[in-house]
From TrEMBL:
Transmembrane segments: none annotated. Keywords: Hydrolase, Signal. Belongs to the metallo-beta-lactamase superfamily. Class-B beta-lactamase family. It comes from the Bacteria. This is MBL fold metallo-hydrolase.
Length: 278
């Protein structure tokens, strides 16, 4: 019995320890506007005397640390509005823990997908959905939510902070790494590339970009990301045109210049298999 208790305690310590390793940090982008990094998708937050508006919620276990980070900017602050950029767990699993009772806004398809997941807490479901554009304002910061045609999933939106010249791209941008394109949830390689091109045409050299994953980026970083996608797609298409199968292309690999874009979640193999479906 004692052995079991000790083992259990060790296991619990392991879990707590793994979670403790992630430190939440924030970067001030403009007055009342912050980028918050932790575990999961990057957060943008508008925090001030009128309350907080948060874009994406990471994981349930991150909620206390995220709340503490918000309170370090404004004592006792309450989250009034939570926006979800899309339905993936690393962006929405903290919804209920972070923003139960608050307004939760997302693309209409996000609610459809989360409702279909019996394990997703009802308190974390979007309370307001839309397709198109939605302006919001809090603490003197203007935001503009814009849903995007199918790309990462079939329910993506981006958040413009026009005056601050900041754009939160959700998972339409993975900084300097191969992106995940969720083809099983309505995503599309062609749609992803075309949305990145569109957003690139709408920003300038001073725009700061909050990617879904990775560090704060600029226009040059997004251009680099687009170039990688276009060139790796044409490499795969050229091999396909030579009659090579998906597995043969995986075995051959992409050209060496793209090695550094591979990471534990989207390896070169997974990226090639995604491109092969395009
Ligand atoms: Zn995602």
């Amino acid at each position: 019995m004692k052995k079991v208790t000790v083992l259990l305690a060790l296991m619990l310590c392991g879990v707590a320890h793994a979670q403790d390793k992630v430190q939440v940090s924030s970067l001030e982008l403009a007055k009342h506007l912050y980028m918050i990094k932790g575990a999961g998708g990057n957060i943008a937050a508008v925090v001030g005397p009128e309350g907080a508006l948060v874009v994406d919620s990471q994981y349930e276990h991150m909620a206390p640390q995220i709340k503490a980070e918000l309170e370090s900017k404004q004592a006792g602050v309450q989250i009034k509005t939570l926006v979800n950029t899309h339905f993936h767990g690393d962006h929405v699993n903290g919804n209920a823990a972070l923003a139960s009772g608050a307004q939760i806004i997302a693309h209409t398809n996000v609610l459809t997908r989360l409702k279909a997941d019996a394990k997703f807490p009802v308190a974390g479901l979007p309370t307001e959905t839309f397709v198109g554009e939605k302006p919001l304002r809090l603490n003197g910061v203007d935001l503009h939510l814009v849903t995007m045609p199918v790309s990462h999933t079939d329910g993506d939106l981006v958040v413009w902070f026009k005056e601050a010249n900041v754009l939160h791209m959700g998972d339409l941008f993975f900084a300097d790494r191969f992106p995940f394109i969720d083809l099983k949830s309505g995503g599309s390689v062609a749609g992803y590339i075309s949305n990145v091109k569109l957003l690139l045409s709408q920003i300038d050299d001073k725009t700061r970009l909050v990617p879904g994953h990775g560090d704060l980026m600029d226009k040059a970083g997004l251009q680099r990301f687009l170039t990688m996608m276009e060139q790796t797609l044409s490499e795969v298409n050229a091999l396909k045109a030579q009659g090579k199968t998906e597995d043969q292309i995986v075995a051959q690999g992409l050209s060496a210049q793209w090695k550094s874009w591979s990471w534990n979640f989207i390896t070169e193999e997974r990226w090639i298999r995604t491109l092969f479906q395009a």
